[in-house]
Design a protein that fits this description.
This protein has one domain: TIM Barrel, CATH 3.20.20. It has eight helices and ten strands. The protein has 274 residues and is of the alpha/beta class. Bound molecules: zinc ion. Zinc ion (ZN) binds next to strand 2.
Length: 274
């Protein structure tokens, strides 16, 4: 099954960031991650409204293919989309992003409508299958629909033509199904290389969106890097599980309670990354 952008066995367990001690230790993805942070990406392409630097570190999710990509560091080049897993902002917001489109929980639509949640859905065509009606309804109640490839391959290392076909192909699908042209792209498993960034740019993508926090199937939060607590600007990934202990609506409700306790609200990612 294609669903599941690696909740368990995915990016999060490659990034055992230890709170307090040696936050960068053990990441093993510094080559890829360092590039974005050093060059202060995020400002040049309009990512982030906040004053803080260090946007767009992409160290966390590296996917099952491991940290050693074929093309080395991703130095942001002109015209290449920034890679973000956290938005530098002082606004008390976090961003809810849902992957794949496998879980079609009608109560989730009610929740998004009732609570007016500006969530982002990263859709894979082959996973969504005939379920486009569900996502059209979600969109009508305030969700945004974004690109997560046609077939959910691990893109890193694939030739340009193949990567471009996956990304541009899904752009075309989303355009024809919903009349939209997404600006955000999430690579499956969070794994990508410089070719991905080039292909994404050529397909009209403005930013590549990873995540720092994962909402697991049982409702707990795991962190790919940094402090093990929610912070303003965090991008939270909600992977689609096979048969998660809690439904999408239940997991989201639990998270909303936690956000409330911390004085955080759900922000619209497109307002901060564009
Ligand atoms: Zn996925």
């Amino acid at each position: 099954m294609l669903a599941g952008c690696g909740p368990s066995g995915g990016p999060s367990d490659t990034g055992p960031t230890v709170q307090g001690a040696g936050t960068k230790a053990g990441m093993g993805t510094e080559t890829e991650a360092g590039a974005g942070a050093e060059a202060g990406e995020g400002t040049e392409a309009g990512v982030g409204k906040g004053p803080g630097g260090g946007a767009g570190r992409s160290s966390g999710p590296s996917g099952p293919s491991g940290p050693s990509g074929p093309s080395g560091p991703n130095r942001p080049a002109p015209g290449r989309p920034p890679v973000v897993d956290h938005v530098p902002t002082r606004d008390k917001v976090v961003f809810l992003t849902y992957d794949d489109g496998a879980e079609r929980d009608p109560r989730f639509i009610d929740l998004v409508r009732r609570r007016r949640l500006p969530v982002s859905m990263f859709l894979t065509d082959s996973v969504v299958g005939p379920g486009y009606g569900h996502f059209a309804r979600l969109r009508s109640v305030g969700a945004s629909l974004q690109n997560h490839t046609l077939d959910h391959p691990a893109l890193r290392g694939l030739p340009y033509a193949g990567q471009r076909a996956e990304i541009c192909g899904q752009q075309r699908k989303l355009t024809s199904r919903f009349g939209i042209r997404p600006h955000l792209f999430r690579p499956p498993y969070g794994t990508y290389d410089t070719t991905t960034l080039r292909a994404a740019a050529d397909c009209g993508i403005k930013a590549v969106v990873l995540w720092r926090v994962t909402l697991e199937g049982d409702g707990t939060l795991t962190y790919t890097r940094g402090a093990h607590r929610l912070a303003p600007g965090d991008i939270i990934s909600v992977p689609a599980g096979e048969t998660p202990p809690l439904t999408l609506a239940e997991r989201t409700t639990r998270l909303l309670r936690e956000l409330e306790e911390r004085g955080l609200k759900v922000g619209r990612l497109e307002d901060y990354v564009r």
